[in-house]
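Researcher: Going back to the complex we discussed earlier. I've cleaned up the inputs and rechecked each line, so this should be the final set. Can you rerun the prediction on the complete assembly and write out the structure?
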Amino acid sequence: MNGPVEERRQHYLNVNYGLKSWLLTIDHKRIAWLYLVGVTFFFFVGGLFATLIRMELLTPQGDLVQAETYNKLFTMHGVTMIFFFLIPSIPAVLGNFLIPLMIGARDLAFPRLNLASWYIYILGGVFTLAAAAAGGVDTGWTFYTPYSSIYSNTHVALTVIGIFITGFSSILTGLNFIVTIHTMRAPGMTWFRLPLFVWAHYATSIIFILGTPVIAITLALVAFERLFGLGIFNPELGGDPLLFQHLFWFYSHPAVYIMILPGMGVISELIACFSRKRVFGYDFVAFSSLAIAVLGFLVWGHHMFVSGQSVYASMIFSLLSMLVAIPSAIKVFNWTATLYKGSISFDAPMIYALGFIGLFTIGGLTGLFLATLGVDIHVHDTYFVIAHFHYIMVGSAVMAYLGGIHFWWPKMTGRKYSEPLARLAAVIIFLGFNLTFFPQFVLGYLGMPRRYHVYPPEFQVLNVMSTAGASILAVGYVLPLAYLIWSLRYGVVAGMNPWKAKGLEWETASPPPTDNFDVTPIVVHEAYAYGEAESQAVYPTGKPANV
Amino acid sequence: MSDSSIVHAHQFDDAEQQHEASWLGMWVFLATEVMFFGGMFLGYTIYRSTYPAAFADASNHLDIWLGTINTAVLIGSSFTMALAVRSAQLGARKPLVLFLILTLVLGALFLGIKFTEYYAKIEENLVPGSNFSFAGPLGRAAEIFFSFYFAMTGMHALHMIIGLALLTAMIVKAGRGRFSSVYNTPVELVGLYWHFVYIVWIFLFPLLYLVGRHLQ
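Model: Rerun complete. Updated structure for the full complex:
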């Protein structure tokens, strides 16, 4: 198994042992592991709700659950997946682990704040799980008033308090990233030498900082309305439920970009490494992340085309929503151009990356259908919308997350996973995903509304296809859980840079030492200098950690 | 915020980088805070333009004198906070402790007056909910006004309470001589926070207390 040298070397995993050394750690790499455990747990909790939803939808009748339970199932699925898996997944796990390594820093700027973010995340999770255990919540993850504020008899207050708390974890993570990227870059690591992963996280952090507080206060007002009888969204007093929708989507649409931008950062790294080429049009890809973050704040009204908002507002929102397609398309085209004449290899992370490009293109283009006023009125609140955003959030974001986990797994653990099993899992996930969600585009276009547990019998064939796909998808998700855990003990020792990738994180040992670099690197090359330079940095007083 | 017993935390190269990071961190946090209060200010603006008469009428039920005194108290506390930061930068320990304590006292006075006002509103049945009563046809929109009044001033008061806790921590540290003309970042950052909370009130006071005045 291990060589004798490997066993002697001290790194962040073996520097000390015991539960306390993990729960009180301020090492960004260990905090990333804490988050990994947290988001994995919530992913499978959310997956359990999804399983029950798909089982119910096998038949047109309500034979597994009735309407009330079904409402709770899709609500809890949305809440856990969005707030407790998708939003923290890539930033809090991979971002936390990699940003200091990528910029040549010893840690994030505020390590204790970083640990506090994790505890805040867990505390919010406890509230939300307590609400689920106490009987759940049935408003949909959107918590539309006045149903959520007045009429629902379920645990709305407990759930929104959980989300309110977890929001502060996002805010503090974003704050930490922004400050770290501004002030902690190694000598020579200029803004335009940063990996695109870091640019993507910078853009994401801006949304964390400016968007999350708005959902926090909005949900707090809903909780106040339920608990103390304040009446800001109460129509009986002349309050406006639409105001809630505006405030909710002001965050929750940008939140979609919180989920996808870090994934785009991951894909840029993967595509460059497995095509052995510098990312085509680096500057455009970097700025397109910022453009998505900024434009993302101006499009929320496209969720409200049928709400009765001004048709002129809808027209502006429709136009602005179309504009988001431009920076998104820049990324897709530039990744494709990077592939052109590259030396492509099909390792598991690359399969995820290529899958991402395809699924993101479908998800993005169907987003344009929905941004078109007339079409949206036809497919609003149907399975077409469900299919569209699952192509973005599952097809794209989860694919990117898994691709990233596989790519950096040797760095995080010092071990390689089983490559054949990983490729198999990636293909299973791709096929299972498409079988699950493509039929839903058709269902939605034919008029099947979302959030119903019963449906007309003519929709059954497509629903059975979707449920079959979900079963395949489940296999694809459990498989990596098994072989990745297996590799922790039995995996082949990876070495410093198993992918021959570029970037400072590959110039230190695997797993890295607690301080990341024994000698602070001085960066002298652009990112992704494939075929040009041996390493991105020079180390004036010696070699990087234990090479 | 870093521990003062060490020159700089392990993740930083030097004290200057640490100072720069701490400042930027605080400003980014304040940007978050602006958006946090911003949601309520937006809601207030929309309802005030929808129900101008009710908002003016309801506003006249607030105690203008207590509000004005509180504004003066908070301006005073912002002044003493600025003096505390200046003393910290000069490394003057006794004035630092004195001005921090003065700020704390003024902050506590503000909260005391605020809770007196809240108590009066409870007595007058102006707290939104089942006991709310407001004479006249504008009562329902007035309840919305008072919803904003309690949500906004309540969130502001919560920030004041957090500020008092931070000030207490600063007073203890300053008393132990942890700050010097070289190292005083925590005092500066608490100062920034305190001024932010004060500025929020500078917007809340006219929006809540003064909107109805010109109609009297």
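Model: Worth noting: The two ends of chain B are 49 Å apart (CA to CA).
Researcher: Good, that matches what I expected from the previous run.
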